[in-house]
């Protein structure tokens, strides 16, 4: 049996709100207060662990990060027409076509030194390395890599400085397998963090494509099962509706199909681009680390010691237990509880606690996995990570 919460003491474990996919400042074109305002907004909404996942470029955003870090001294290689350009890269030296650019763009050249994008950070905030990586040559996916110092791409988000037109491609521009290997090589904590597959339904990924990435390495942690940025885009008509999912922004049905095949896959709720200067946003995970450190938070991600949720306030899990005979959950307030096994609702209840007796076959669990969802009257939803009873080869785990 693979239970990510095994031996977890729910009474003493911390609750640390985090998310693997959030954009604090995109694009990177202007050193405005946008980054500080968005971080403050996320902080007001409860976030304390920040694996910020900016792109353009795809590079970690930390307390001392400056816009000029990516314009005057890019520390990772680029390519031009497929030919490697080694770091450090000062884009002032490489942009030789200034006269071709519009006047409003030319006035930014040459690039100059800038100050940190954050003017202040609360004392109870952890910033963790992360970025969103994209533009792979053999898979139409986006991924985040919490805990990884991997960098890719360049700063010219919209081609305003004509880098793509002059042979410098956006994004990773290579096979996803190479990118994943690089992300793992750059992990700060060897037994923490990993790769998360972003908005798989919105990206039009097939189950087989997701399963291929999950099978590549156990450090490919799982998929986003809710993305608030996608949900808002669908409701506003900016994105077409997702296929195979009943509600905008969700990839719940895909999650259950993958789990039903015995593939371990954690589920993440994220805000993506929904963190704006004003207003609320949905999507986060509640990490359950033993201590408030970046390393412990990243280990909680690797171990699956977290639950995904929309709001991260009020409703909470007080206890969870699983064995080959039963699964049980206890809450801090009464709510609707649902046990899902092999893609179907196996049992529902309402109250502070509930349990489900697992059907047996020859004395062993007759299901591949069980997961628990909880919902209250405010619209808060909690998604506990799955307990696996059977592996991809059909082998019983319990």
What does this structure look like?
By secondary structure, the protein is an alpha+beta fold. The chain contains nine helices and 20 strands. It has two domains: 16-308, TIM Barrel (Alpha-Beta Barrel); 314-398, Immunoglobulin-like (Sandwich). Strands 1, 11, 12, 13, 14, 15, 18, 19 and 20 form a nine-stranded antiparallel sheet that branches. It has a five-stranded mixed sheet with strand order 6-7-8-9-10. It starts with 15 loop residues before the first strand and ends in a 10-residue tail after the last strand.
What is the topology?
Blueprint: E1 16-18, H1 34-44, E2 49-50, H2 68-71, E3 78-80, E4 83-85, H3 91-94, H4 103-106, E5 126-127, E6 132-133, E7 143-144, H5 176-185, E8 195-197, H6 207-216, E9 220-227, H7 228-235, H8 252-260, E10 266-270, E11 284-287, H9 294-303, E12 306-309, E13 317-322, E14 326-341, E15 344-357, E16 360-361, E17 364-365, E18 369-375, E19 381-384, E20 387-388
Parallel strand pairs: 2-5, 8-9, 9-10
Antiparallel strand pairs: 1-11, 3-4, 6-7, 7-8, 11-12, 12-19, 13-14, 14-15, 14-18, 16-17, 18-19, 18-20
């Amino acid at each position: 049996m693979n239970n990510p919460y095994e031996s977890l003491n729910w009474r003493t474990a911390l609750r640390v709100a985090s998310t693997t996919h959030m954009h604090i400042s995109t694009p990177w074109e202007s050193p405005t207060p946008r980054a500080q305002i968005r971080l403050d907004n996320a902080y007001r909404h409860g976030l304390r662990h920040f694996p910020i996942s900016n792109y353009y470029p795809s590079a970690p955003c930390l307390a001392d990060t400056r816009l000029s870090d990516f314009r005057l001294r890019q520390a990772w290689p680029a390519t031009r027409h497929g030919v490697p350009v080694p770091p450090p890269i000062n884009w002032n030296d490489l942009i030789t076509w200034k006269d071709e650019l519009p006047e409003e763009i030319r006035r930014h050249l040459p690039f100059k030194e800038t100050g940190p994008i954050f003017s202040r950070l609360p004392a109870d905030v952890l910033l963790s390395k992360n970025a969103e990586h994209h533009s792979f040559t053999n898979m139409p996916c986006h991924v985040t890599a919490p805990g990884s110092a991997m960098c890719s791409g360049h700063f010219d988000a919209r081609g305003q400085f004509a880098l793509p037109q002059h042979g410098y491609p956006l994004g990773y521009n290579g096979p996803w397998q190479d990118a994943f290997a690089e992300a793992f090589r750059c992990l700060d904590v060897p037994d923490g963090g990993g790769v998360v597959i972003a908005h798989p339904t919105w990206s039009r990924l097939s189950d087989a494509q997701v399963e291929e990435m999950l099978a590549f390495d156990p450090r490919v942690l799982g998929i986003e099962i809710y993305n608030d940025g996608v949900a808002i885009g669908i409701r506003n008509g900016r994105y077409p509706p997702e296929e195979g999912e009943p509600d905008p922004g969700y990839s719940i049905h895909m999650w259950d199909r993958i789990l039903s095949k015995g593939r371990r896959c954690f589920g993440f709720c994220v805000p993506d681009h929904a963190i704006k200067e004003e207003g609320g946003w949905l999507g986060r995970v509640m990490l359950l680390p033993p201590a408030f450190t970046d390393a412990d938070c990243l280990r909680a991600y690797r171990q699956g010691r977290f639950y995904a949720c929309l709001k991260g306030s009020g409703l909470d899990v007080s206890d969870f237990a699983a064995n080959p005979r039963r699964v049980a959950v206890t809450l801090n307030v009464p709510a609707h509880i649902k046990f899902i096994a092999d893609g179907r609702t196996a049992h529902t209840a309402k109250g502070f606690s509930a349990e489900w007796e697992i059907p047996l076959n020859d004395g062993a669990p007759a299901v591949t996995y069980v997961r628990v969802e909880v919902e209250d009257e405010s619209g808060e939803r909690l998604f506990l990570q799955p307990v696996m009873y059977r592996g991809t080869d059909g082998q019983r785990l319990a």
